[in-house]
Write a structure and sequence with these properties.
about 90 residues, alpha+beta, four-stranded antiparallel beta sheet, 2 helices, about 25% helix, elongated
Length: about 90
Amino acid sequence: MRHHYFRITNCDGGTIEHLAEIADMESAWTETTKVFGDLARGCGLKENAEWRIELLGPGKQPLYRIRLLAETCEAAASACRTADKGEPY
């Protein structure tokens, strides 16, 4: 198994890296989504904050990134409408 790293950036902007041994790219995606789900439940996301996890390869190059973004659209309604243009929902 090859060494990979999870880089986790919390809602307050703090970052940690955690070593992980992952066999292949399919396992890498599965493990990234599992870790993200486990950690996101307890991250305490605040308004206008971002929380993310990245899976880095052995050379610490980004392979996957999952972000959770909380936006308060009432305070910046025009900014949210601008950002929402072209969204598929």
